[in-house]
Amino acid sequence: MKVTVHTLQKKKRNAEPIVALTAWDYLFAELIDQAGVDVVLVGDSLAMVALGHPTTLPMTLETMLHHAQAVSRGVQQALLVCDLPFLSYQESPQVAFQVAGRIIQETQAQAVKLEGGYSAMVDTVSFLVQRGIPVMGHLGLTPQSVHQLGYRQQGKTPEAAEQILTQARALESAGAFSIVLEHIPKDVAAQVTQSLTIPTIGIGAGPACDGQILVTADLLGLTSKQPPFAPPYLNLRSKVQEAVQAYSQDVRQGKFP
Ligand code: KIV
Ligand code: NA
After folding, report:
1. Is the Cβ–Cβ distance between 197 and 218 less than 8 Å?
2. Mutate to test the pocket of ligand 1, among 32, 39, 135, 182 (most ligand atoms within 8 A of CB)
3. Angle (deg, nearest 10), helices 158-174 and 119-130
4. Ligand nearest to the CA of 205
5. Would you say 7 and 36 are in contact if contact means Cβ atoms under 8 Å apart?
6. Each residue's pLDDT tens digit, 210-235
7. 59-64 contacts: CB < 8 A, separation 24 or more?
8. Residue 251 to residue 155: CA distance in whole angstroms
9. Which of 10, 110, 142, 182 is the 20 to 30 A CA-CA neighbour of 55?
């Protein structure tokens, strides 16, 4: 059965953990969807993972649409969520609505995700939700703010933790259906999770979140820069290298074909 935003609310009520992964193309989208994940996110981390940029900031709306369309062709069951890329939505709720609307219309994504919980973003979430677009929030380490935050863990002081909690509550009140909590202390994530009726999805935020998300390339050990909080489930990088070396050797020695 197709996963919807309501399925996720129900999972939180029933204390069933939510499983989420990212995808950037048809091939991996189909694989992880058929393996039974609940949520597929077309994360703008694809700018780094699939396109080789140093940050997520160079991601454009057109590139995002291109990847989200490919992912969408592979996803049958999971809830499909697409990131709003940097510069495409921050200016105003109206601009964000046009961009989110294009994503929903042109990719068949069921929801969008945006970063941040200051009042401007809370207003934007409310504007989109009131016009029929489900929004996932994203707090803690928000990579589109890398030049303000770095890639450091967030929410480490009591004041910073309190701010995350306040912003999470504000996003919930604005109508967000879920919130990603990235790279914050596990106690802070636990407190946010207990305080909200909408599900939290953690990445580097400990076990108390209502669900977990990883960048699929990190899960599979495909990236050269593995984040400290995401030990790979497979070392696919070395498996790929072994296969390429074996093939090269066979071709060079006249054993293949
Ligand atoms: O872009 C991304 O992959 C994300 C997840 C890490 C939540 O936003
Ligand atoms: Na992202």
Report:
1. no
2. 182
3. 20
4. 1
5. no
6. 999 999 999 999 998 888 889 999 99
7. 59/83, 59/85, 59/86, 60/85, 60/88, 61/85, 61/88, 61/99, 61/102, 64/88, 64/103
8. 53
9. 110
Question: Encoding tokens for residue 1?
Answer: 């059965």
Query: Average per-residue pLDDT in the chain?
Result: 97
Q: What angle do CA 150, 151, 155 make, to 5 degrees?
A: 90
Ligand 1: residues with CB < 6 A are: 22, 41, 43-45, 83, 180, 203, 213, 215
Q: Supply the residue whose CA is at minimum distance from atom 8 of ligand 1.
A: 43
- Residue nearest ligand 1's atom 4 by CA: 43
Q: Is the C-alpha dihedral spanning 208, 141, 173, 110 positive or negative?
A: negative
ipTM: 0.99
Are the beta carbons of 176 and 138 closer than 8 angstroms? no
Q: Is 178 annotated as a binding residue?
A: no
In DSSP terms, 200 is beta-bridged to 179
- Quickly tell me which residue has 């909200």 as its tokens: 196
Task: State yes or no: is 106 an active-site residue.
Answer: no
Query: What was the pLDDT predicted at 6?
Result: 98
Token readout for 10 is 């129900």
